[in-house]
Amino acid sequence: MARRRSLPDDRILEITLALMHRLGPQAVTFAAVAAETGLSGATLVQRFGSKPAMIRAALDLAWTRLETATAEAIAACQPTPEGAVALLAGLSQGYGDIDSYADGLMVLREDLRDPELRARGTRWGNGLAAAIDRCFPGQPGAGRLMITQWQGALIWWGFAPDRPIDRVVAEELGSLAGLLAGRPVPAEPAVRG
What we know:
Blueprint: H1 9-23, H2 30-37, H3 41-48, H4 51-76, H5 81-92, H6 98-113, H7 115-133, H8 142-159, H9 165-181
Helix pairs in contact: 1-2, 1-4, 1-6, 2-3, 4-7, 5-8, 5-9, 7-8, 8-9
């Protein structure tokens, strides 16, 4: 690839994230990102300072995008149990296929290792739970239950990815929302092996 003279930082960080998803965080080096971007390793060092700083900037970009998508989904959410299910099913569409989901778990490991990113994740989860609580008046803690079930549904889907992820999430969370709202729950479980 011919050397580029310039590339915006966000584009470099997108490429870094893609590399992390494809090959794992350990594969992110200045040389690897230089090969992907067409920039020189020296340019990357000047911009980011160190490999950990570049990886952290890429993870921060991913969190910013997730927070933005979540805020938009919350703003569009109807304050009903069905709205809560639709919100979380919609957020699930970004996970892609099983390979993309599994690759994302490698990247999540990096978030869990960093105290500041863990704190950011906690704030994100608390905000999401609070938004979902508004969908279940008189049911304090429903939001935390819903997002916990959501993450569990994603993991179980990973073992049997035979249906679209958002459909599995909607079925699983629909069952829980029904319980919380005092409605009948479907007899057939959403996740099958």
